[in-house]
Write a structure and sequence with these properties.
heterodimer, A: alpha/beta, Amidase signature (AS) enzymes, five-stranded mixed sheet, B: 4 helices, about 5% strand
Chain lengths: ~475, ~100
């Protein structure tokens, strides 16, 4: 059976199972499957059982359950959890135990959710296959010889494998949506500013977003609802009101205008993926949506702009790992020597590559040619979106040009790996919300994701479309 | 060639990143290929485009402002120091950076 927030709460309220038993049941299944999936890096049983006892006490007192009361969730390892080791998939933070919770984690727990543990990911969220984790790759639960996507590979795998009801991931260039697509579950990043980044261990601060993965769009909506909204600890989180997404999703989609950007359907897409996404668009038409041909002329430049901006910000953010305040220290013959050795030993290949590239594009003599140019092209991409949203309510694209690929297939060629982010990075640069929803399978088993972008703070529209799409059988196309 | 071995060495020094000989050459070649690809941005005339330095637009940032600068209880200094590789509460200890005269 597929666990949802609703059936967890029903089971608890009807006293079919206690929260403590539910947690034990999840840990038993995690114990049985995690060795092969490698999806959880750390478990937090003490914290989980303490929360379960609180939920059981509420139930015993006949009190109503809060929004996520008793719902077992998993947290990506780049998100701080007080008292539970948070490695970011890196050796440099192997023993790091955050002294505080990220706001998103605190809000989930306040809403009654039970935090089971931390999920594997590409080191510092840098990667599209989860193969850049210092703790080994995650396997896709649908096909164990294939990647789950990345960087939130663990967060997608645990939900798809029934080892959590929902999870938090982070998305910088597609890291929630792409693993959601490759593992066959809905996955969403809200607008930049929608969810507080306080406690998110930074990769690229102008791009990073925390968001939910779950087994249904309704659950994605419920988790987003819980974590969204202004937080005084993150000056980029906005006071824009948070709609009741769980109600918004039930509104009709008939007459909604969906933009189909021709530029996204150019070369490079797997023919099976193309076929499914076209069927997906047909399904949206059947639901009464009105397709509109649109142009997003700067799409082809998004990857280049993204890998300038993201690496530049990463090189700056990752300067903090110096062996002084937290994490690994490797002694050297001087302070600088200690920094160099610590960083050389603590970071993995992809992270080092990005630090070198990011430092280079920011360095004297290259700043204008690369970083400034990247920011200007980013402005053009954001403009493509603004102009499109004057004519349409949402934009429909594939999430990934290819389904889940074989482990090891792309590890030797970073550029080829980057190019697979083509459909997701555009919305990341523009700051708009995006959701991936299952849209059929290719080769019989491999899920395809349909991506919907909405205007900034227009999460309701794409949640509504994704929900209608899912309810109409989108996953079975 | 977009980036030379010397430039990778210089950048790694700027980033305080120790790289092995093999890493230097591997990253140089890979970054060279990435920079070659990034070069396609020059197809776009951006002379009159304002760089996008932040994501939120003016009307969105109006509410995303700094909080009041007030002191609030925190009390996690001990826990923070516990995470340091070489703490000497209330300090972080680092290798000596200033040589005394005569040493």
């Amino acid at each position: 059976m597929t666990w949802t927030i609703e059936n967890v709460k029903e089971g608890l309220t009807a006293k079919k199972i206690s929260a403590r038993e539910l947690v034990a049941d999840f840990y038993e299944r995690i114990e049985a499957r995690n060795a092969e999936l490698n999806a959880y890096l750390a478990l937090a049983p003490e914290r989980a059982y303490a929360q379960a006892d609180k939920i059981d006490a509420l139930l015993a007192a006949g009190k109503p359950l809060p929004a996520l009361g008793g719902v077992p969730v998993a947290i990506k390892d780049v998100i701080s959890t007080r008292g539970t080791v948070s490695t970011c998939g890196s050796k440099i933070l192997q023993n790091y135990v955050p002294p505080y919770d990220a706001t998103a984690v605190a809000r989930l727990e306040e809403a009654g959710a039970i935090i089971l543990g931390k999920t594997n990911c590409d080191e510092f969220a840098m990667g599209s296959s989860n193969e850049n984790s210092a703790y080994g790759p995650v396997k896709n639960p649908i096909a164990l010889d294939r990647v789950p996507g990345g960087s939130s590979g663990g967060s997608a795998a645990v939900v798809a494998a029934g080892l959590a009801v929902a999870s938090l991931g982070t998305d910088t260039g597609g890291s929630i949506r792409q693993p959601g697509a490759l593992c066959g579950i809905p996955a969403m990043m809200g607008s930049y500013g929608r969810v507080s980044r306080y406690g998110l261990i930074a990769f690229a601060s102008s791009l990073d977003r925390i968001g939910p993965l779950a087994n249904s769009v309704k659950d994605v909506a419920a988790v987003l609802q819980t974590i969204a909204g202004r937080d005084s600890n993150d000056s980029t989180s906005t006071t824009a009101p948070v709609p009741v997404y769980t109600e918004e999703i039930t509104k009709p989609v008939k007459g909604m205008r969906i933009g189909i950007p021709r530029d996204y359907f150019a070369e490079g897409m797997d023919s099976g993926v193309r076929d499914k996404v076209e069927k997906g668009i047909e399904l949206l038409k059947k639901l009464g949506c009105q397709p509109v041909d649109i142009r997003m002329p700067h799409t082809d430049y998004a990857i280049a702009a993204y890998y300038i901006i993201a690496t530049a910000e990463a090189s700056s953010n990752l300067a903090r790992y110096d062996g002084v305040r937290f994490g690994l220290r490797v002694e050297g013959d001087s302070l600088i020597g200690m920094y160099r050795k610590t960083r050389g030993a603590g970071f993995g290949a992809e992270v080092k590559r990005r630090i070198v590239l990011g430092t280079y594009v920011l360095s004297a003599g290259y700043y204008d040619a690369y970083y400034l140019k990247g920011q200007k092209v980013r402005a053009l991409i954001a403009r493509d979106f603004r102009e499109a949203f004057q004519r349409v309510d949402a934009i429909v694209t594939p999430t990934s040009p290819i389904p889940a690929f074989k482990l090891g297939e792309k590890t030797d060629d970073p550029l080829q790996m980057y190019l697979a982010d083509i459909y997701t990075v555009t919305g990341s640069l523009a700051g708009v919300p995006g959701i991936s929803v299952p849209c059929g399978k290719v080769c019989g088993t491999l899920p395809v994701g349909l991506q919907l972008f909405g205007p900034a703070f227009g999460e309701s529209a794409i949640l509504r479309l994704a929900h209608a799409f899912e309810q109409a059988g989108g996953a079975e196309l | 060639m977009k980036i030379s071995r010397e430039e990778v060495v210089r950048v790694a020094e700027l980033a305080y990143l120790e790289l092995s000989e093999t890493e230097l050459e591997t990253y140089r070649a890979q970054i060279d290929e990435i920079l070659e690809y990034i070069g396609k941005l020059n197809e776009l005339d951006t002379a009159h485009v304002e760089p996008m330095a932040q994501v939120l637009t003016d009307d969105q940032t109006a509410d995303a402002t700094l909080r009041e600068d007030t002191v609030v209880p925190c009390g996690i200094a001990t826990e923070v120091l516990k995470q340091a590789p070489d703490p000497e509460p209330p300090f972080f200890r680092v290798p000596k950076v200033i040589e005394r005269s005569g040493e």
